[in-house]
Write a structure and sequence with these properties.
Layout (H helix, E strand, L loop, with lengths): L40 E12 L2 E12 L3 E5 L6 H7 L10 E9 L2 E2 L7 H7 E4 L10 H11 L7 H11 L3 H4 L12 H14 L4 E5 L7 H14 L4 E5 L3 H7 L2 E9 L6 E10 H6 L4 H7 L5
Parallel strand pairs: 2-10, 3-8, 3-9, 6-7, 7-8
Antiparallel strand pairs: 1-2, 1-4, 4-5, 9-10
Bound molecules: adenosine-5'-diphosphate (ADP) and magnesium ion.
């Protein structure tokens, strides 16, 4: 079992300042004192192993994702963060040669069980990718597409489009050109459009794979604020390269690393530590986590 439960009595007060030089302030929201593990997890991974052909990419991951929490997945490049994230809404089904073992539960139901429709899974568990992937449609129709195809009850599509675009900090830039192609937007704007598109269908869980890597610092900050707003309605799981971002926005952090196989040298990803973000950054229990977050590795 890779999950290391924290002891509730040692929550944020253990911050000893060791990492203040390398990390932004961990958000210390006194009203969000968290239990050691999510008491009411929306999703859980049990014994998750992922293979690409013969390559064992991710080894035995156990995680739980709390309702109305933001969970960050961090770790060096290639440790399997995106692979794990894609397992959470069956996006790996679309990757040739990928094979998933173990269970991922959503409200207690294994999304890999026979008879589960992966498309239905993805309407509940939406995803924002690292590279923006707008549809070849107008800005308006990018947002309206999901609500339309899923038959969502919408009082005013115009209002929904505006709300989603405002939420993704894009409205002011596009309000006068909603009928123009999304391809005319800059990369950063396209990514915010994709975030708006995901929000528009009101999923239960939002998966984000380095969603801000194409955004400038101002847009990034707006998206981070947005994530914290969205947290009251959604469960958010974010892969981020940016430790300051994990520290700023997340409630819990899962740190992954990759271990080379002694014979093949192939690097298999594994979960090192999962805990409250305050503890991961102030007082991690594993030396590998401490080395990574203090910049000695990765
Ligand atoms: N489609 C794929 N086919 C083969 N190997 C893959 C594929 N996607 C990822 N991998 C490999 O799986 C490992 C984990 O990758 P990934 O999940 O992308 O890591 P991270 O997101 O942490 O950088 C890496 O060794 C990567 O090369
Ligand atoms: Mg990745």
């Amino acid at each position: 079992m890779s999950i290391k439960p924290a002891t509730a009595s040692t929550a944020p007060s253990t911050h000893d300042g060791r990492h203040v030089d390398t990390l932004a302030t961990v958000h210390q929201d006194a009203e969000r004192e968290l239990p050691a593990l999510p008491p009411d997890p929306v999703m859980e991974a049990h014994g998750l192993n992922v293979f690409y052909g013969d390559f064992h990419a991710v080894h035995d991951v156990n995680l739980s994702f709390g309702r109305n929490e933001i969970t960050a997945l961090i770790g060096p490049s290639g440790c399997g963060k995106s692979t794990v994230l894609r397992c959470l809404n069956r996006m790996n089904d679309l990757v040739t040669g990928a094979r998933v073992e173990g269970e991922v539960t959503y409200h207690g139901q294994n999304i890999y069980a026979r008879g589960v429709d992966p498309i239905a899974v993805r309407t509940h568990i939406g995803m924002v990718f690292q590279k923006p992937n707008p549809f070849p449609k107008s800005i308006y129709d990018n947002i309206a597409y999901g609500p339309r195809v899923t038959g969502m009850k919408v009082d005013s599509m115009d209002d929904l489009v505006e709300e989603a675009l405002r939420g993704a900090a894009l409205w002011d830039e596009v309000k006068d050109k909603l009928k123009q192609s999304a391809y005319g937007l800059s990369g950063g704007q396209q990514q915010r459009l994709c975030i708006a598109r995901t929000i528009a269908t009101r999923p239960d869980v939002i998966l984000m794979d380095e969603p801000c890597s194409a955004l400038d610092p101002i847009a990034t900050s707006r998206i981070e604020d947005l994530m914290m707003e969205l947290r009251s309605d959604y469960t958010i799981i974010i892969v981020t390269h940016n430790m300051q971002q994990a520290a700023r926005v997340s409630d819990r952090t899962a740190f992954f690393t990759a271990r080379p196989d002694e014979t093949t040298g192939n690097r298999t990803g594994l979960l090192v530590e999962f805990d409250q973000t305050t503890r991961i950054f102030a007082n991690p229990s594993d030396k590998r986590t401490e080395d990574y977050i203090s910049g000695r590795f990765g």
